[in-house]
Design brief:
This protein is α/β, with parallel strands linked by helices. The protein has helices at residues 2-18, 80-83, 89-102, 121-132, 145-159, 174-185, 201-208, 228-234, 257-267, 328-341, 347-357, 364-386, 423-433, 458-473; strands spanning 33-40, 43-49, 57-63, 72-75, 108-109, 168-171, 191-196, 212-217, 239-245, 274-278, 304-309, 322-325, 401-405, 412-414, 418-420, 436-437, 439-440, 449-453.
């Protein structure tokens, strides 16, 4: 029963994140939603009715010892911009899996996109010192000069990029930095080009800016890397922003320098086209792959906004700190948005970030130790899933994800469960039968695949693989010919 409850709970989470929640429809309210509730002393009664359009919601309240004839109606209509945005499916699944584990369901959680390591002690100690020394007040909106100088030094030494502190903006995580770039440079009707599979937030950020996400599919056989000719065929006068993520979430693919140079040659032909280079996983990379910052390519500095942060390489997800570097004109625009949105990032986190950048080139031994562990886990999973019939693999060169093609198993009908018709239903099946929480590929723009995070201990991964193999073995006889 716990497994069935887990599957039902995950289905609800997936439905919510997909915007597929079901409502009862009343024909007399064709374009509104209403919720009414009344109370007599300690009793509360709730009644809801939902309209077909889902555009407006009215709340009527009556509170008192005796029913009253008058009622107050409140219009709680939401913005069309917000209604166009889908909730993050990865966040929904991660939160749901955590809730199931707390409820006693032995779920192995391989959905989260965060390292399972503790923040290195030198970074933690810097944060503690900041608190004990009273460094707990507001900082400048753009970030402390100390940190921005350290970021400039890092970008010069590790990425071959020259910036001054006024060309760097520190934010509450790389996610905020990316959103602010999109809002700063995109006008309504502009196009944001996004190679798929993509990080789940990219298209929704474009929609928040009233821009149109243009999805550029890639192939597993080509390691999920964009074809330059295909990219060029999709560019138009409306093309404003190309988002590149290398190493990639969710695929772990790394763009080689030669391919980036081809993309740069294409970008140079389009004066309106800017490039957002998301480099948050740059230090989690496996030899012989190497990282190239797009802004370092000839002629690309003026049109590139480089986003990075501290969450992934330094295991600082909860510290919430990222940054964008680029031409002052664009960075200042992002700063203007931030000044009215959140103002400066945490003073404590910024002190810790200075310590992180002081650990040495590419994070020094603390980061290299984590990367070695990720590599061991990757190799184990690639070997293990390579032994499963029908599973197709592109070996990741960075990050800590596998993006595996499980479409071989689509079309199966399982007694007591139903049909497996895509990545979402297969994830529900694996939660139900194997009690392993994964993220369906449709969240990333590729329904043939499932994302598996190996930011978990090797024993946990070994147990998860055994469970998944057992669950899939019972499907083999049901695979349609």
């Amino acid at each position: 029963m716990a497994a069935a409850a887990a599957s039902a709970s995950l289905q609800a989470a997936l439905s919510f994140a997909s915007g597929k929640t079901q409502h009862n429809v009343e024909s007399d309210l064709p374009s509104s939603k209403s919720v009414s509730f009344s109370s007599q002393l300690s009793c509360l009664a709730f009644k809801s009715s939902f309209g077909k359009g889902g555009c407006a919601l009215r709340v009527s309240a009556r509170i008192g010892a005796e029913p009253v004839s008058s009622s107050m109606e409140v219009d709680i209509t939401l913005s069309p911009r917000v209604n166009s945005v889908k909730p993050s499916k990865t966040v929904a699944i991660t939160d749901q899996a955590a809730a199931l584990a707390q409820a006693g369901v032995p779920v192995i959680r391989l959905a989260a996109g965060e390292p399972d390591f503790d923040t290195p002690s030198a970074i933690v100690q810097a944060g503690v010192r900041a608190i004990s020394e009273g460094y707990t007040r507001y900082t400048p909106n753009a970030g402390t000069l100390e940190l921005r100088n350290a970021i400039c030094h890092k970008l010069k030494e590790e990425n071959g990029l020259s910036y001054t502190p006024d060309q760097v903006l520190v934010s509450n995580g790389a996610k905020q930095s990316i959103l602010q770039v999109v809002l700063a440079v995109c006008s309504p009707g502009d196009e944001v080009l996004i190679p798929a599979p993509f990080w789940v937030s990219y298209p929704e950020m474009a929609r928040l800016a009233d821009a149109n996400p243009v999805i550029l599919p890639t192939r597993l056989s080509e390691n999920f890397l964009i074809d330059p000719e295909f990219l060029e065929s999709k560019l138009s006068d409306k093309s404003r922003l190309l988002i590149l993520c290398s190493p990639s979430n969710p695929t772990g693919s790394v763009y080689p320098r030669k391919l980036l140079e081809q993309i740069a040659e294409i970008a140079a032909k389009h004066p309106r086209l800017l490039v957002l280079s998301d480099e948050i996983y740059e230090h989690i990379i496996y030899s012989p792959a190497t990282h190239t910052s797009f802004a370092s390519l000839p002629g690309m500095w003026n049109r590139t906004l480089t986003v990075n942060g501290f969450s992934k390489a330094f295991a600082m997800t909860g510290w919430r700190l990222g940054y964008v570097a680029g031409p002052k004109h664009f960075v200042s625009a992002c700063g203007k948005i931030q000044s009215q949105l959140t103002s400066g990032a945490s003073s404590i986190s910024q002190k810790a970030a200075v310590a992180a950048l002081g650990l040495g080139y590419a994070g020094g031994e603390a980061v290299s130790t984590m990367v070695k562990a990720f590599l061991e886990r990757r190799d184990f999973l690639v070997k293990s899933f390579g032994e499963i019939e029908g599973v197709r693999i592109s070996v990741p060169q960075g990050a800590f994800y596998l993006f595996l093609d499980f479409s071989f198993y689509y079309g199966c009908h399982v007694d007591g469960f139903g049909e497996i018709n895509g990545s979402e239903s297969l994830c529900r099946y694996l939660l139900d039968k194997a009690q392993v929480a994964l993220v369906p590929g449709d969240a990333f723009g590729d329904d043939t695949c499932i994302r598996i995070s190996y930011a978990a201990s090797l024993p946990s991964l070994e147990q998860a693989v055994d469970r998944i193999k057992t669950a899939l073995s019972s499907l083999k006889s049901k695979v349609p010919l």
